[in-house]
Design goal:
The chain has about 500 residues and is α+β, with helices and mostly antiparallel strands. About 50% of the residues lie in helices and about 10% in strands. A hairpin with a 5-residue loop joins strand 5 and strand 6. Bound molecules: heme C (5 copies).
Length: about 500
């Protein structure tokens, strides 16, 4: 018997016979329905109109493909069940209903089965490709999972809003992909069981609020940041200007001007400044999981010798914990997810004019409203503007009469600032995720540069203000230096 003949006799005929059962038919229907829906969605996608809605994504890239495969699986299951049932009752025919290839309808039926199988394979392949790509998209990571809401919100307004989450959080290669999916599945279980978790807190899995940092399985900075930033690039000096406003009726403005010695690798291949001083030759051991307390620091000197600096609190005992080579993330820990302090937020908004400094007391009042307790972002969005309005209506009627629109704009801006930084449902509030880049709102650099980390020869890690920056003006009204360089 030729191959095709045999195939038809031994496989196609029995399959058609056994396949004629409700389960397999339902499977076929589910598969074709979801297949057709997916194909039409992809076709629409081909002609543009990208859709950012994460829930549509979940339907089209995860649920429909799952239904499609579920339907496919039902077909052999139905066949198997019918086979078993018939065998039990001894009703399996000796010869299956004849395939009459002269019967045109039947011949076409076979063609359809063949074509459908090929199409199914193509659909499964495309669906898994789309599904995998979708699970790598910032929409999936950040939006469809409200647990990530704080990080996603901060990410969207960061310099890295066009760098996909997976670029930094998941390495290349099958292993890190697998690890990430295992982690993701664990998180998915935690999210799903969250509503029940309060019933049996230690048994039912729940996600942590807030999500803790540092992220222990973050890709090494060498692989992520340095894929785009050349660490040795010589940045030189960087001028930083910050405005501050006082808690008085006039919201008196002052400015701080700092010239940071950022450095890098200079033209003579010398490592200089802040970047040059650390990269590649400073190791440390932190005493806590958040890396906030760093009692042991070691520097490898250019001649290969080492200098070890220990905090006095350590009293000669070597701390336990991970020994870590300092990299970008030890300073730029909030590169993609910067949360600011309430003071920084309102000062910046007032400097930009989004909150008008011409409104008396707006700095003091705005700060109080930002720092008040609200049960949710929705409550804050409702109360902050209402309370600000009430403040001017009751105590500053003249201002309200003349500047109602500015008051309303200020209220709206305060709501924006709040919702970019405070997430009551995730227990993320002002200061929950500190930024290590400076030393004013968080110890940051002063985790090591506090004058208390001393080497055997008596030298300590420098706390000299001038080692890091020239303070050109500190909280001055109209600093002369800004006028000199034509900025004011
Ligand atoms: C440019 C790199 C980068 C990108 C892009 C990025 N992250 Fe992060 N992410 C980080 C770093 C760095 C940390 C802090 C790590 C640390 O302190 O150890 C972090 C921390 C986190 C944390 C832990 C909680 C926290 O706030 O510290 C979560 C959750 C997170 N990121 C989610 C996301 C999501 C979701 C996206 C995409 C929408 C994303 N990240 C994109 C670099 C990145
Ligand atoms: C895929 C490329 C890419 C990766 C990966 C990346 N960056 Fe960036 N980064 C950029 C670009 C592009 C800019 C400039 C964006 C702009 O000016 O709007 C930037 C800006 C910055 C800035 C200056 C702006 C700011 O936010 O203060 C810092 C600092 C920075 N990156 C640090 C990092 C660190 C640390 C990492 C690793 C955790 C990292 N970057 C990973 C592309 C990248
Ligand atoms: C010892 C702390 C420290 C380390 C380590 C560090 N940086 Fe920085 N970096 C800084 C500071 C401080 C600034 C200036 C901050 C500011 O602009 O507010 C800065 C600024 C930058 C900028 C912005 C430069 C500009 O022209 O505005 C980039 C980009 C950057 N760093 C990338 C990196 C990368 C990539 C790494 C890792 C290879 C790294 N940094 C490691 C402290 C550090
Ligand atoms: C993990 C500990 C640690 C942290 C955190 C750290 N440094 Fe350092 N830094 C060192 C050590 C150790 C040295 C070398 C000893 C020295 O020069 O005093 C050093 C040296 C420097 C130098 C060179 C000083 C000189 O006189 O040549 C500068 C500048 C500097 N750090 C700036 C910073 C800044 C800015 C930050 C925060 C953004 C920071 N460091 C955070 C450990 C640290
Ligand atoms: C180890 C390095 C380092 C040392 C030492 C240091 N600073 Fe700074 N300082 C920084 C960095 C980095 C920033 C910029 C932070 C940023 O980008 O927002 C900064 C910013 C500041 C600012 C600006 C305020 C602000 O809101 O950011 C002031 C004021 C300041 N430093 C004062 C001092 C004084 C006074 C000393 C000496 C007692 C000192 N610093 C020592 C690293 C250092």
């Amino acid at each position: 018997m030729p191959f095709f003949e045999r195939f038809r006799e031994n496989w196609v005929r029995p399959a058609l016979f056994f396949g004629n059962n409700p389960t397999s038919l339902a499977g076929g229907a589910i598969t074709s329905a979801s297949g057709i829906t997916m194909i039409s969605y992809w076709l629409i996608g081909l002609f543009g109109r990208p859709n950012d809605n994460p829930y549509l994504g979940i339907i089209f890239f995860l649920i429909l493909p799952a239904l499609f495969i579920f339907g496919l699986a039902l077909i052999p299951i139905g066949v198997f069940l019918r086979y078993k049932a018939l065998r039990k009752t001894g009703k399996i025919p000796l010869a299956f209903p004849k395939i009459d290839l002269n019967d045109r309808i039947f011949r076409h039926g076979l063609d359809i089965v063949l074509v459908a199988t090929i199409v199914n394979l193509l659909v499964v392949a495309t669906a898994s490709y789309h599904g995998a790509a979708y699970m790598d998209s910032p929409q999936f990571c950040g939006q469809s999972c409200h647990v990530m809401h704080p990080e996603y919100t901060a990410y969207k307004i960061s310099a890295h809003s066009h760098v996909a989450c997976v670029e930094c959080h998941i390495g290349s290669g099958a292993r890190s992909y697998f690890e990430a999916k295992v982690n993701g599945t664990k998180q998915l279980i935690e999210v799903t069981s969250h509503p029940m978790a309060h019933i049996a807190p230690h048994i039912i899995p729940d996600y942590p609020t807030p999500i803790p940092s540092p992220v222990m399985n973050l890709r090494p900075a060498r692989e992520i940041c340095e894929a785009c930033h050349t660490p040795a690039k010589f940045v030189g000096e960087k001028l930083i200007i910050k405005s501050g406003f006082a808690d008085d009726a006039a919201n008196t403005e002052t400015q701080t001007v700092v010239l940071l010695h950022l450095g890098g690798l200079d033209g003579l291949s010398h490592l200089t400044g802040i970047h040059g001083a650390h990269l590649g030759h400073i190791e440390y051991i932190a005493a806590d999981s958040t890396r906030a307390t760093i009692p042991w620091v070691q520097r490898t000197n250019p001649d290969g010798s080492t200098s070890t600096y220990v905090a006095s609190a350590l009293k000669g005992v070597m701390p336990r914990g991970e020994r870590r080579m300092m990299d970008c993330i030890d300073c730029h820990n909030r590169a993609a997810h910067t949360f600011v302090t309430a003071e920084e937020a309102i000062n910046q908004a007032m400097a930009d004019g989004a909150i008008s400094p011409s409104l008396p007391w707006v700095h003091k009042e705005g700060l109080t409203l930002l720092k008040a307790n609200y049960t949710s972002q929705a409550e804050a969005a409702q109360k902050i503007p209402a309370d600000l309005e009430a403040f001017y209506r009751s105590s500053n009627q003249a201002v309200w009469a003349a500047k109602a629109t500015l008051v309303q704009a200020a209220g709206a801006e305060l709501v924006t600032l709040y919702s970019q930084n405070v997430f009551p449902d995730m227990k993320v509030t002002w200061g929950t995720h500190p930024n290590h880049i400076g030393h004013t709102s968080d110890p940051g650099c002063f985790r090591c540069h506090d004058g208390d980390h001393v080497a055997k020869d008596g030298t300590s890690i420098t706390q000299d203000c001038a080692a890091c920056h020239n303070l050109l003006a500190v909280e001055e009204a109209k600093p002369k230096v800004l006028a000199d360089i034509g900025i004011q």
